[in-house]
Structure formats: C-alpha cells, structure tokens
Amino acid sequence: MRKKRVFVTGGAGYIGSHVVKLLGEEGYEVLTYDNLSTGHRWAVLAGDLVVGDILDREKLLEVIKSFKPDAVIHFAALIVVPESVSRPLKYYRTNVVGTLNLLEAMKKAGVSFFVFSSSAAVYGNPEEIPIGEEHPLRPINPYGETKATVERILRDIKLSGDPFRWVSLRYFNVAGADPGGKIGFAYPDPTHLIIRALKTAKGELKRLEIYGTDYPTPDGTCIRDYIHVEDLARAHILALEYLLEGGESDAFNCGYGRGFSVREVVDAVKRISGVDFEVAERERRPGDPPALVAKSEKIRKVMGWTPQFDDLELIIKTGWEWEKRLTSRKS
Q1: Residue 93: how many CB atoms within 10 A of its CB?
Q2: Which one of 2, 66, 173, 274 is at 20 to 30 Å from 202 when CA atoms are compared?
Q3: How far apart (Å, rounded) are the C-alpha atoms in residues 45 and 28?
Q4: In angstroms, what CA-CA distances link 51 with 10, 32, 61, 103, 283?
Q5: Where are the alpha helices (DSSP H) in 49-164?
Q6: What is the homologous superfamily of the domain 193-223+258-295+308-325 according to CATH?
Q7: pTM (predicted TM-score)
C-alpha cells in the first residue's frame, strides 16, 4: 500500500516539528509548508520543506495539488496573546483568512481530512474547572477568538453535510522538548512561562517577569494545565488515524487534567536548574484567565490517548536539557 501523505502547515515550528518527526517515524510521507517566521529548516526532520505562506493562496493551492495529500495538519498561526490584543487585525488575517485559504485549497484539491491546532483560549474564563469540550466558546482575547472562529467555520462545514471531516485539538499549555534532544522550543522571543523561566535560569534573560499575583487562586497567580509536547504530538497522530479510519468530526481537549500555578512552576524550574534567578512581579496582562485546566477523558476514551510524560518535573527537565544544548543556529 502507498504511504499516506500528510501536508503540514507550520511544521518547522515548535509543536509542528515534533509532529513532523513523529509522522516520519510512523512511516507517513510528509511535506511541510512554513514561512519560517518562527520556524527553522533544521527542525524539519522528516520529508521535504516548502517555504511559503498560508496567505499566498495561489502558491498554497499549487503545492497542495502537486503533493496530493491524504490529510492536512494545520499549525501555521500567530499565537502571542498580548500581541493579539494590541494587533487584532494581524491575527484575524493570518489565523482566520489564512485558514480559509487552506480549507478552500483543500476543497479544490479534493482533500477531505483536516486536523486543526486549536487552543484552550477558546473557552475564555471557564464556568467550571476542569473544562470539558461541551463548555461554550467564549474567548476573552483576539487570539482565542480567531481559534474559536475557525472552529465555528468547521462546525458549519459539518452542518452543511459536506463529506469533509476534521478534528480540532484544543491545546492547554505546551512545554518540554524531544527527549532525544533533536528539537525543541526555538522561537526568537518566547512568551511561554516555562521557556522564559528556563532562559532566565540559563542567563539569557536578566529576570523572569510574572504577570498578576492577585488572581482568585490559592497563591494569587494563574493556574495552567501543562502538557508535554511529545504527548501532544502523539495526540495528532491518533487524530489523523481516527479520521482516516472513519471517525466523525469533533473537538478534543489536550491536557492532563491538573494545573500548576505560576509560582509552583517557577519553584520547580529553580529546583531543577539549580539556579535561584530573579523574579519580578508585574500587573496582570490583558486576556489572561485565572485558571485553565482540561477534562481530557474524551480523547483518552475515543482515541486511546495515553500520556507518557505527565509529570511537571519531567516536562521541565526535557526543556532544560534542550536549552543547554541549544546554540545559535541558522534557519
């Protein structure tokens, strides 16, 4: 049988590169499409790379028609919440218009299976913790709104009776790195807490700034559900197999079902790195909910997802080992 072909947008980025690596190991034929704005050539460890932007409709269609994929996994997006608040049009253009371009190209090329990189940000301020997939989509920032908008588009495609099928994976906070040390987080200006804490421990940042110490949580700082990037990558492979085997369109949370506060994460990074770095407390950032913790029973039951890295210290250790290996690389 011919190997299944998978077209991956944003496959040179942090999460995408881990999925591309795993697709290659699982025997899929992979083509990555990435504009390299935050991704890197060296991070694409399977298949070929085409440098292109999802806003370039003609090139996108040309590449998809030429590759003839069986399915598409879509990571390409802007993801920084504070920037989305200050530059919403930029986020709607890339995250919504870019995704529409991709969906239209898929339709023209006759590709019917789609795995979408969504976010817990679609929930906004949750009515209850942990959050189940049935929770209303009520984002409180433009980034979350762009992801929710795409999910609504996918819902409407489903309601139209189109045979097109999709899975939306709603990520909680992704961290860690490939345990083998081949790839990891390498964005030029990271905003994620664990990454910034590790870079502070490494001496790349002068101090770690934490935003908001007066939230209605036990220690006053935000609580998040942290998921290792390898477990998240495996969820994408399972989602792909689920669709290829006839699974129905649906959304699934990707998290472990328990949260840690900002202070707990900082303490763990200091303990694992052995560095007592400076921490500066700042005012709350706009668009940050107090707590986000997943209900993840659905993906475990439907797809058989069994996390292998469900341990905050292990997540931080793999990230710390990557940071110590990471040197300046050319993209």
Answers
A1: 14
A2: 173
A3: 12
A4: 10, 8, 14, 19, 39
A5: 57-67, 81-86, 88-91, 98-109, 142-159
A6: UDP-galactose 4-epimerase, domain 1 (3.90.25.10)
A7: 0.95
Contacts of 1 (CB under 8 A, 6+ apart): none
157 pLDDT more than 60? yes
Residue 134 three-state SS: coil
Neighbours of 158 (CB within 10 A): 15
Please, what sign has the CA dihedral across residues 300, 183, 75, 26?
negative
Maximal C-alpha separation, the chain: 58
Residue 56 has pLDDT above 50, yes or no: yes
The yes-or-no answer on residue 91 being catalytic is no
Average pLDDT over residues 63-70: 98
- Give pLDDT tens digits for 113-131: 999 999 999 999 888 999 9
User: pLDDT of 193-202, one tens digit each?
Assistant: 999 999 999 9
Per annotation, catalytic residue among 14, 28, 91, 143: 143
8 A C-beta contact, residue 47 and residue 20? yes
Rounded to the nearest 5°, which phi and psi values hold at 257? 90, 15
Angle at 307 between CA 304 and CA 309, to 5 degrees: 170
CB 83 within 8 A of CB 53: no
Correct CATH for 5-176+226-254 of 3.40.50.720, 3.30.70.1730, 3.30.70.260, 3.40.190.120 = 3.40.50.720
Give the pLDDT score at 1.
61
Beta bridge partners of 117: 169
